[in-house]
Amino acid sequence: MRFLLGYGSLLMPNGMRGKKRLHNMLYDHATRCVHSITLFPDGSRPSMYSPDYFAHVCDHDPFERQLSEYRKVPHLDVTKRMQYVDARVYLADDILVKVDKASMFNSLETRTPLLDQHLVEYVSSLPSTMHLHNGVLKYLLKKVAAGVVPAETLTRPKHGFSVPIKQWFRGDLNAYAHELLDAPRARQRGIFNPQYIRNLLNAHASTKLVNYSEAIWALVCLELWFQAYMDEPTLHSEQIPRVEMLRNH
């Protein structure tokens, strides 16, 4: 059944909600763990990159870091191996760094009490069923917090600190992304296939069945990073969308 669902995902449009989860059923647990965090469709590297650039990177596995961490703990079950990868990669290299930089920028000192070393070591020693129980995430934490935190807070769906980039890139910022990513300056880098980028932008803007907003956001950030740190300083401030403009979308 798992493989049937996985192959069934091939009939769904790229970017469609749920396709990645179904398609990941074709792979082993380690690969599923890694593919769940990717921004671009599986197998898109040959068409996403220019031929010359892909020839330079085709032998590099972008997931090797995560997979190597996963393989370091073969004695753990699947849930704990995924948690180990998150602690070594996602926490250390992503969200903790973002929180630290954002808080320091605003003269704030943030703390992460649930990442206390002794607490983490103790909780890691508990059975996985106390972490994930009958589909309930953070099962143990919710049990401990019951009676202290209101029930409606404990049971409501997870709500992250996301920004509406999906709507932005279907609105006025779609034109900005086209202008930025399809400009001669970006094409001359020789990294991406211009037609692939155009198709990605057009697909996201033309239908709500697919969502490439995070991929587009990553491409925009990468191009702006190139312009800020790799190119001559010719980017004028008026070329960058202002906060007021984003708030209106």
Please render the helix and strand layout as text.
Blueprint: H1 2-8, H2 19-23, H3 29-35, H4 45-48, H5 51-57, H6 64-71, H7 78-105, H8 117-124, E1 132-133, E2 136-137, H9 139-145, H10 151-155, H11 165-168, H12 172-181, H13 184-187, H14 194-206, H15 213-229, H16 243-247
Antiparallel strand pairs: 1-2
Helix pairs in contact: 6-7, 12-14
| Average pLDDT for all residues | 84
What shape does the CA trace take? globular
Number of helices, where a helix is a run of at least 4 consecutive DSSP H or I residues = 16
Cα distance, first to last residue?
42 Å
Number of strands: 2
Instruction: Extract low-pLDDT stretches.
Output: 240-249
Can you walk me through this structure?
- This protein is 56% helix and 2% strand.
- It is mainly α and 249 residues long.
- The chain has a domain at 165-247.
- It has a two-stranded antiparallel sheet.
- Helix 6 packs across helix 7 (78-105) and helix 12 (172-181) packs antiparallel against helix 14 (194-206).
- Mean pLDDT is 84; it is low at 240-249.
